[in-house]
Amino acid sequence: MFLDKLNTLADWEISFLTSELVSKRYFKNQNEDVTILKVGSTKAPIKTLGGMIINPDITVNEMDTNINDLLILPGADTWFEQDNQKIIKVAKDRIEKGLKIAAICGATGALAKAGALNNKKHTSNDIEYLKMFSPEYTGEAYYVNEPVIKDENLITASGLAPIEFTYEIIKQLDLFREETLSAWYNLYIKKEQKYFYELMSSLKK
Protein backbone atom coordinates (compact mmCIF):
# COMPACT_ATOMS: atom_id res chain seq x y z
CA MET A 1 0.00 0.00 0.00
CA PHE A 2 1.21 3.50 -0.86
CA LEU A 3 0.41 6.48 1.36
CA ASP A 4 1.32 9.86 -0.06
CA LYS A 5 2.96 12.29 2.35
CA LEU A 6 3.05 16.03 1.77
CA ASN A 7 3.41 19.14 3.89
CA THR A 8 0.25 20.23 5.74
CA LEU A 9 -1.14 16.69 5.57
CA ALA A 10 -4.40 16.54 7.55
CA ASP A 11 -3.48 14.04 10.27
CA TRP A 12 -7.04 13.18 11.34
CA GLU A 13 -8.19 12.19 7.87
CA ILE A 14 -6.03 9.06 7.86
CA SER A 15 -5.55 8.41 11.58
CA PHE A 16 -8.43 5.94 11.92
CA LEU A 17 -7.19 4.04 8.88
CA THR A 18 -3.51 3.83 9.77
CA SER A 19 -4.20 2.85 13.38
CA GLU A 20 -6.32 -0.11 12.27
CA LEU A 21 -3.92 -1.20 9.53
CA VAL A 22 -0.88 -1.09 11.81
CA SER A 23 -2.43 -2.50 14.98
CA LYS A 24 -4.38 -5.27 13.18
CA ARG A 25 -6.52 -5.45 16.32
CA TYR A 26 -9.71 -6.25 14.41
CA PHE A 27 -8.25 -8.16 11.45
CA LYS A 28 -10.00 -11.43 10.66
CA ASN A 29 -6.58 -12.90 9.92
CA GLN A 30 -3.98 -11.83 12.46
CA ASN A 31 -1.24 -13.31 10.29
CA GLU A 32 -1.99 -10.86 7.50
CA ASP A 33 0.30 -7.87 7.32
CA VAL A 34 -0.32 -4.62 5.49
CA THR A 35 2.86 -2.82 4.50
CA ILE A 36 2.40 0.94 4.25
CA LEU A 37 5.01 2.66 2.11
CA LYS A 38 5.07 6.40 2.76
CA VAL A 39 5.63 8.22 -0.53
CA GLY A 40 7.01 11.73 -0.91
CA SER A 41 8.00 13.98 -3.79
CA THR A 42 11.46 13.68 -2.20
CA LYS A 43 12.74 11.87 0.88
CA ALA A 44 12.84 15.11 2.85
CA PRO A 45 10.71 15.05 6.02
CA ILE A 46 7.25 16.58 5.81
CA LYS A 47 5.31 18.37 8.54
CA THR A 48 1.62 17.66 9.06
CA LEU A 49 -0.99 20.21 10.08
CA GLY A 50 -0.73 18.73 13.57
CA GLY A 51 3.00 19.37 13.68
CA MET A 52 4.11 15.74 13.26
CA ILE A 53 7.31 15.17 11.31
CA ILE A 54 7.16 12.20 8.92
CA ASN A 55 9.96 10.76 6.81
CA PRO A 56 8.91 9.25 3.46
CA ASP A 57 10.10 5.70 2.75
CA ILE A 58 10.32 6.17 -1.01
CA THR A 59 9.92 8.89 -3.61
CA VAL A 60 7.26 8.97 -6.31
CA ASN A 61 9.93 7.98 -8.84
CA GLU A 62 10.59 4.78 -6.88
CA MET A 63 6.97 3.60 -6.91
CA ASP A 64 5.95 0.54 -8.89
CA THR A 65 3.01 2.21 -10.58
CA ASN A 66 1.67 -0.90 -12.29
CA ILE A 67 0.88 -3.07 -9.27
CA ASN A 68 -2.66 -2.89 -7.89
CA ASP A 69 -1.66 -1.93 -4.35
CA LEU A 70 -3.87 0.81 -2.98
CA LEU A 71 -2.64 4.40 -3.29
CA ILE A 72 -4.01 6.70 -0.58
CA LEU A 73 -4.07 10.46 -1.07
CA PRO A 74 -4.81 12.36 2.17
CA GLY A 75 -6.03 15.91 2.41
CA ALA A 76 -3.60 18.82 2.67
CA ASP A 77 -3.44 22.55 1.98
CA THR A 78 -0.53 22.14 -0.43
CA TRP A 79 -1.99 19.86 -3.10
CA PHE A 80 -1.78 22.46 -5.85
CA GLU A 81 1.92 23.15 -5.35
CA GLN A 82 4.33 22.07 -8.08
CA ASP A 83 6.05 19.46 -5.88
CA ASN A 84 2.90 17.34 -5.92
CA GLN A 85 2.32 17.20 -9.67
CA LYS A 86 4.16 13.88 -10.09
CA ILE A 87 1.98 11.97 -7.64
CA ILE A 88 -1.14 13.54 -9.15
CA LYS A 89 -0.07 12.29 -12.58
CA VAL A 90 0.57 8.82 -11.12
CA ALA A 91 -2.86 8.89 -9.48
CA LYS A 92 -4.60 9.93 -12.70
CA ASP A 93 -2.84 7.15 -14.62
CA ARG A 94 -3.89 4.62 -11.97
CA ILE A 95 -7.51 5.74 -12.17
CA GLU A 96 -7.44 5.35 -15.96
CA LYS A 97 -5.99 1.84 -15.55
CA GLY A 98 -8.65 0.89 -13.00
CA LEU A 99 -6.13 0.44 -10.18
CA LYS A 100 -6.98 1.02 -6.53
CA ILE A 101 -6.87 4.59 -5.29
CA ALA A 102 -8.49 6.43 -2.37
CA ALA A 103 -8.55 10.23 -2.02
CA ILE A 104 -10.02 12.50 0.64
CA CYS A 105 -10.61 16.23 1.02
CA GLY A 106 -8.01 18.36 -0.78
CA ALA A 107 -6.70 15.39 -2.72
CA THR A 108 -10.03 15.16 -4.54
CA GLY A 109 -9.57 18.77 -5.63
CA ALA A 110 -6.17 17.94 -7.07
CA LEU A 111 -7.61 14.97 -8.96
CA ALA A 112 -10.46 17.12 -10.25
CA LYS A 113 -8.02 19.77 -11.47
CA ALA A 114 -6.09 17.06 -13.34
CA GLY A 115 -9.28 15.87 -15.05
CA ALA A 116 -9.13 12.50 -13.31
CA LEU A 117 -12.72 12.62 -12.01
CA ASN A 118 -14.53 13.81 -15.12
CA ASN A 119 -16.02 10.40 -15.93
CA LYS A 120 -16.01 8.68 -12.53
CA LYS A 121 -18.60 8.82 -9.76
CA HIS A 122 -17.01 10.80 -6.96
CA THR A 123 -17.52 13.12 -4.04
CA SER A 124 -15.50 15.81 -2.28
CA ASN A 125 -15.99 18.56 0.29
CA ASP A 126 -18.62 20.13 -1.98
CA ILE A 127 -19.29 20.49 -5.68
CA GLU A 128 -18.66 24.25 -5.46
CA TYR A 129 -15.32 23.52 -3.78
CA LEU A 130 -14.24 21.50 -6.82
CA LYS A 131 -15.39 24.13 -9.28
CA MET A 132 -13.75 26.95 -7.33
CA PHE A 133 -10.32 25.35 -7.02
CA SER A 134 -10.36 23.35 -10.26
CA PRO A 135 -11.68 25.33 -13.24
CA GLU A 136 -10.59 22.43 -15.49
CA TYR A 137 -13.13 20.18 -13.76
CA THR A 138 -16.05 19.07 -15.95
CA GLY A 139 -17.30 16.08 -13.95
CA GLU A 140 -20.27 17.68 -12.23
CA ALA A 141 -22.66 15.09 -13.70
CA TYR A 142 -20.72 12.38 -11.86
CA TYR A 143 -20.63 14.19 -8.51
CA VAL A 144 -22.56 12.49 -5.69
CA ASN A 145 -23.35 14.52 -2.58
CA GLU A 146 -22.44 11.83 -0.04
CA PRO A 147 -19.65 11.57 2.59
CA VAL A 148 -17.88 8.84 0.61
CA ILE A 149 -18.35 7.28 -2.83
CA LYS A 150 -16.83 4.13 -4.30
CA ASP A 151 -16.78 3.70 -8.07
CA GLU A 152 -15.09 0.40 -8.90
CA ASN A 153 -11.55 0.82 -7.50
CA LEU A 154 -11.82 4.57 -6.87
CA ILE A 155 -12.79 5.81 -3.40
CA THR A 156 -13.34 9.53 -2.76
CA ALA A 157 -14.45 11.23 0.45
CA SER A 158 -15.19 14.55 2.08
CA GLY A 159 -12.68 15.80 4.61
CA LEU A 160 -15.50 15.53 7.17
CA ALA A 161 -15.76 11.77 6.64
CA PRO A 162 -12.59 10.01 7.87
CA ILE A 163 -14.67 7.19 9.40
CA GLU A 164 -16.58 6.56 6.18
CA PHE A 165 -13.32 6.78 4.23
CA THR A 166 -11.69 4.19 6.49
CA TYR A 167 -14.75 1.93 6.29
CA GLU A 168 -14.69 1.79 2.50
CA ILE A 169 -10.95 1.11 2.37
CA ILE A 170 -11.07 -1.69 4.94
CA LYS A 171 -14.07 -3.17 3.12
CA GLN A 172 -12.25 -3.01 -0.21
CA LEU A 173 -9.18 -4.72 1.26
CA ASP A 174 -11.36 -7.36 2.99
CA LEU A 175 -9.45 -7.12 6.27
CA PHE A 176 -12.32 -7.36 8.80
CA ARG A 177 -15.17 -9.82 9.08
CA GLU A 178 -18.38 -8.24 7.81
CA GLU A 179 -19.93 -8.14 11.29
CA THR A 180 -16.74 -6.67 12.77
CA LEU A 181 -16.62 -3.87 10.22
CA SER A 182 -20.31 -3.11 10.68
CA ALA A 183 -19.96 -2.88 14.47
CA TRP A 184 -16.78 -0.80 14.17
CA TYR A 185 -18.49 1.66 11.84
CA ASN A 186 -21.64 1.96 13.95
CA LEU A 187 -19.63 2.47 17.13
CA TYR A 188 -17.83 5.50 15.72
CA ILE A 189 -20.78 6.93 13.79
CA LYS A 190 -23.66 6.30 16.23
CA LYS A 191 -21.57 6.33 19.44
CA GLU A 192 -23.77 3.79 21.22
CA GLN A 193 -22.28 1.37 23.74
CA LYS A 194 -24.05 -1.66 22.29
CA TYR A 195 -21.85 -1.51 19.21
CA PHE A 196 -18.72 -1.83 21.33
CA TYR A 197 -20.03 -5.12 22.68
CA GLU A 198 -21.03 -6.22 19.18
CA LEU A 199 -17.51 -5.38 18.04
CA MET A 200 -15.92 -7.41 20.84
CA SER A 201 -18.30 -10.30 20.25
CA SER A 202 -17.51 -10.39 16.53
CA LEU A 203 -13.85 -11.07 17.31
CA LYS A 204 -14.67 -14.31 19.13
CA LYS A 205 -16.26 -16.02 16.13
TrEMBL record:
It comes from the Archaea. SUPFAM superfamilies: Class I glutamine amidotransferase-like. Residues 9-172 form the DJ-1/PfpI domain. The keyword Nucleus does not apply. CDD domains: GATase1_PfpI_3 (cd03140). Keywords: Glutamine amidotransferase, Transferase. InterPro entries: Class_I_gatase-like, DJ-1/PfpI, Prot/Nucl_acid_deglycase. One of its GO terms (cellular component) is cytoplasm. This is Glutamine amidotransferase.
